[in-house]
Amino acid sequence: MRDKCRKIIDHIGLPRMIIIGFFLFMLLLAGPLGLNVQSLLGDAVRRWAMYGILVLAMVPAVQSGIGLNFGISLGIVAGLIGATFTIEMGITNAFLSILLAMTIALLLGSLFGVGYGLLLNRVKGSEMTVSTYVGFSVIAFMNMFWLSLPYKSGELIWPLGGQGMRNTISLQSSFGHVFNSIGDFSMGFRGGKFYLTPGDDKFGFYVPTGLIVVFLLSCFMVWLFMRSKAGMAMSAAGANAQFTKASGIEVNKMRILGTALSTALAAVGIIVYAQSYGFLQLYNAPLMMGFHSVAAVLIGGASIRRAKISHVILGAFLFQGILAVALPVTNKILPEGNISDVIRIIISNGIILYALSKTKGGAK
Known about the structure:
Layout: H1 2-12, H2 14-30, H3 37-56, H4 58-64, H5 73-89, H6 94-121, H7 127-148, E1 168-170, E2 185-190, E3 193-198, E4 205-207, H8 209-226, H9 229-239, H10 241-246, H11 251-277, E5 279-281, H12 289-299, H13 309-333, H14 339-357
Antiparallel strand pairs: 1-5, 2-3, 2-4
Helix pairs in contact: 2-13, 3-8, 3-11, 3-12, 3-13, 4-9, 4-11, 5-6, 5-11, 6-11, 9-11, 12-13, 12-14, 13-14
């Protein structure tokens, strides 16, 4: 019996079992504390889908051999530039607006990713350290860049002759909630009876159907790519660079391909995230998104050498589910102070530190 328990723990992973147990424990506490469990679960699903593509950006990076990509801030910046440019153009059709924003984001993200990949090829063995530095540096640079862009739209710049971009930009008149609102519905129990209603009723279990489809479709496309000739060559380069090189595959090009894909996915991911949130957040707001994405994919079972789509789907749900449930519960128990923010930092950074402590300097 003990051996069976050990096998189960080894298969699932002790950290994941602890995370799953903590998530369920928070759900059990939510009801007695007067919180709406149906609404909390709906929020968890919404956060899972809106953040999922940012977590998905880790897969090509890990599989190509550059490791956990803390530098997806570079792609996030590309996405924010695409989104702000689209708003400046004043396109009122929501679908045209978000398609243009995503197209610009893909092009910029791919371009930035190629340059980023060239840099990482010159610092082999220190990719995660360099990517962390790149992630922080690009956000610091953009803090100055956002102040100097010659945008004229009143939705982007500070009012009354102010200089530079706003911290938070509403997407209500452009592409806010455009994916969420496609086929969305709420369901649950009210007055002892089951109900199903279109849209978000703020009480039941909310299902943003269009957003979920976009996330899962993105996962499927990456899954297909990873099984293509280029995808398998890229994974081979990450798994065993010397053998891959001996087989006639240019390892450096495969690493650049993985970095470019990771950055491009992050560029699209921030637009999907922003349309669900309803706002763009500039300046330091995206600073820790790379760390949260890393934490999520590690919860799902990924390592610095191997990441799969299943790791993304499971990890994104567990990480965002904990944030959606644990923070309101904590605020109920300890209403004073910023304890919930501290718990969020402990959860994300603790998972990263644990996973990296198991890599033994890069060897699994």
